[in-house]
Amino acid sequence: MGKKPHMVAILLLLAIFTVACRSSIVSETTQESTSEKKDVTVGFSQLGAESDWRAANTESMLSALSKENGFNLIYKNGQQKQANQVTALRMFIQQEVDYIVLAPETETGWDFVLQEAKDAGIPVIIVDRRVDVADRSLYTCWVGSDFELEGQKMAAWIHEYTRSAGIAPEDVHIVNIQGTLGSSAQLGRTRGLSNAARDYGWDLIAEESGEFTEARGREVMASFLHDYDNINIVYCENDNEAIGAIDAIEAAGKRVGSDIQNGEIMVVSFDGINAQALEYLRQGKISCIAECNPLHGPRVLELIETLEAGGTPEKYNYVPETLFSSVPEITSVTVDDVTYEVDIVS
Ligand code: GYE
To answer: Whose CA is nearest to atom 7 of ligand 1?
Structure first.
């Protein structure tokens, strides 16, 4: 009789032990599977919010690197100041993020902080504009546009248009409202125009930065109109500047359009994401837009997936882009023996 309760107690203990073991196995596997699915932490330093292009770019990054896609994203807006971006990068390094994504304001001045990221073993993906660093191993890869090619395509379009309209090169009087000085987008687009002006013999009257904003575009155009009375083409390095420039031209009592032989001032620009600019394109107030694609989020997501899987992505990843125009005569342009179709918008 005395032995029975003893046996029961042993069986009970055994049962408890088995359950305990099983639950510890269960909790271990749970831990394992959560660590497999652990969110990837990304610090994203965006340079600012100067344009519609930038807003679309930020939106694309935030929606691709989302919680649902397995990311823990720390987003910092640099408010158009490189110093803020450097501070953000240092904070990401301190927080030991898995990846840093940097959309840099200007090209130079990144060597030190990128070295710090490299020393901390954090891969850096550059988006949109480039960084100009002595050691290219300071960043893993880059995704963005060929800004000089954009400028060359636009210049080729202007060349085709003026030639077919019978306008002599010396009668092409251009002003350039540049983007943020020292940014890749400005450098490339300005180079595309100035080389073409030199090669074709156009009169490139003046260049000044409009900071990629509508307000500065308006101011710069107003001062150009005040200083020069023979402008017939305005090359705006983004759509927001073009919208401001059109305002200034109309406020000065002049007409915008492609009929420059009859006194219209032709406006051309870059981006093709701003609804107002696309409307102006349809109306013929902007004659041609070189597309610049801001939707980098899904591409960055792919690059991170490649890195997570232990792969090595391409160092430079270009996005494909086209030209949009409401002028039906010019259907393609050629740059360095490559022909690009023009998307005629009506
Ligand atoms: O064209 C402009 C923006 O770097 C490509 O920056 C980008 C440029 C874009 O503010 O609208």
So the answer is: 185
